[in-house]
Amino acid sequence: MDVNELEREWSELTEEFRSLEEANQSYLDLHERLEEMQEKCTKQIQHQRYRMQQISKILKQ
């Protein structure tokens, strides 16, 4: 391999790494959004359980 080929390989590797960084950042952003949605859903489920318990208590009276 001569110097030109090495430079070309290095350039390709650098570009592939940039692409990997972008994909990783996209993954991290989506993961954060997923965690936020999961937390929101969990809170809503807890609230629904609370309300169902309250209704159940009223019906038992």
From TrEMBL:
Coiled-coil regions, chain positions: 3-40
Keyword field: Coiled coil, Membrane, Transmembrane, Transmembrane helix
Membrane topology field: Multi-pass membrane protein
Subcellular location: Membrane
Principal localisation: membrane
Keyword ATP-binding: no
Record GO cellular component, one term: membrane
UniProt keyword Transmembrane helix, yes or no: yes
Pfam families: TMEM120A-B (PF07851)
Record's signal peptide: none
Transmembrane segments: none
InterPro entries reported in the protein's UniProt record: TMEM120A/B
Similarity field: Belongs to the TMEM120 family.
Protein name: Transmembrane protein 120 like protein
Originating organism: Anopheles darlingi (Mosquito)
